[in-house]
Amino acid sequence: MADWSESRGLRFSSTKSSVVNFTRKRCSPSINLSLYGHRLPVVTSVKFLGIILDSKLNWCHHITELKKKCLGRLNLLKMLNGSSWGADRKCLLRLYKTHLRSILDYSSIIYGSASSGILQKLDVIQNQALRICTGALRSSPISSLHVETNIVPLTHHRSGQILRYYFKVLKNPTHINAYRLNCPTQSSCSTTLQEICRSLLHFYDISPSNLEDLPMKAIHQQLDHSINIVLQCQWTNGPSNKLRLLKPTLEEWSTSYQENRKLEKVLARLRIGHTIATHQYLFTRSPPPICARCEILIDVPHLLNDCQNFSISRELLFGFSPFPVYNNLTNTSPKFNTVVQFLFREKSALYNSI
User: Fold this and answer.
1) Could you tell me which of 299, 295, 293 has the C-alpha nearest to residue 275?
2) Which residues pair with residue 297 across a beta bridge?
3) Which of 2, 149, 191, 306 could form a disulfide with 322 if both were Cys (CB 3.0 to 4.6 A apart)?
4) Which of the listed residues 134, 167, 182 is the one where a domain comes to its end?
5) β-strands 38-39, 45-48: how paired?
6) Residues 6 or more apart from 80 whose CB is under 8 A from it?
7) CB-based contacts of 278, cutoff 8 Å, min separation 6
8) How many domains does the chain divide into?
């Protein structure tokens, strides 16, 4: 290296250079290399172009540092969020996508080959950010947070990034990685990148031959559509969920964005089905709450539809009580504005307990 660099008028910095032995063996042979008479230190990881390469290439060190960096940026969302004031949900979600998820997207094509257990460390970042943006409680189901905000889970988001890169390479035969994706599977040049792309194409039921002739913008739309089909199947066939009763299909609801920050949080908690009145016992480790007047367990449908404490307001606004107020929390309900009036009318007793 020293002779090659000097013959071309270059010189490597020996103080900035180090040696990493990439192997997964427990006992690796010792390495003794020197550059310009300076012995190079042997390290277990090195940072190159913002990516931390560890000796085992399991990306554990890189993902750990990535999580620490994103946790610091979460403070920005917390500073702009209050119980009854602060930026609205749309602004907070944009900040998350630009200041946090953009960091997670960088080099996700590379570290996406890490094990699912290691990658789950990054899910905590998105889950916490979505709770801040929606005002949901910590007990809220993760799947409900993704559906309520219309944000794709990181696992599928990374898959989409990899597939976009895959079709970008296919459309450019001169790309440096074109041979890695076009060579036969049985060939000696078969790589992990090729195997990952093939498995993702099979999982999302995507045929490359149907998309190769399309422009990249149309390919991106088809990829997003295929991913949404898988997410819809998982949402439909997943465990029982209160939000699924109101929102069976994945779509963005315009009524989730309100000028009143407090109202945004109240609507999100009611739709998800986890409020202070119904689930605070999980944090205090006390028995589930029982309605003193109705003598049954308190849940969101009971509070809005049947609870006798609010029967007078239901009769005034909806004509009779009980009334399916909870079912009218949907985006297309003609009585949605009346439901909001009902929440504000019971502001002292119900609104603040959510």
Assistant:
1) 299
2) 290
3) 306
4) 134
5) unpaired
6) 86, 87, 91, 92, 95
7) 289, 298, 299, 300, 303
8) 4
Which residue from 183, 187, 155 is spatially nearest to 170, judged by alpha carbons? 183
Backbone angles phi, psi at 283, to 5 degrees: -90, -30
| Residue 16 maps to a domain | yes
Task: Indicate if 267 and 332 belong to the same structural domain.
Answer: yes
Residue 147 CB neighbour total at 10 angstroms: 25
Is 141 within a domain?
A: no
Instruction: Name the region of 59 (left: φ>0; alpha: ψ -120 to 50; beta: rest).
Output: left
Residues 343 and 268 in one domain: yes
Contact 77, 129 (CB under 8 A): yes
**pLDDT tens, position by position, 329-354:** 999 999 999 888 888 876 666 777 88
**Model pTM score:** 0.89
Please give the structure tokens belonging to residue 306. Answer: 């049947």
C-alpha torsion angle, residues 313, 319, 324, 329 (rounded to 10): -70
Beta bridge partner(s), residue 35:
38
Decide if 49 is inside a domain: no
Please tell me the distance from the alpha carbon of residue 134 to that of residue 261, in angstroms, as a whole number.
Answer: 9
* SS3 call for 173: coil
CA distances from 134 to 74, 226, 299 (A): 14, 27, 20
Token pair recorded at residue 149: 């905000």
Q: Which tokens go with 352?
A: 């603040």
The label of the residue with tokens 């069976």 reads: 248
Whether residues 260 and 328 fall in one domain:
yes
Tokens of 72: 């610091």
Distance CA 157, CA 126 (A): 11
Q: Are 320 and 293 in contact (CB under 8 A)?
A: no
Per the structure, the complete domain to which residue 338 belongs is given by: 256-353
Tens digits of residue pLDDT in 184-238: 554 444 356 778 888 999 999 988 888 878 898 999 999 999 999 999 999 999 8
Residue 197 contacts residue 162 (beta carbons within 8 Å): yes
Taking the C-alpha atoms of residue 317 and residue 139, their distance in angstroms, rounded to an integer, is 32
d(CA 269, CA 245): 14
CB 139 within 8 A of CB 82: no
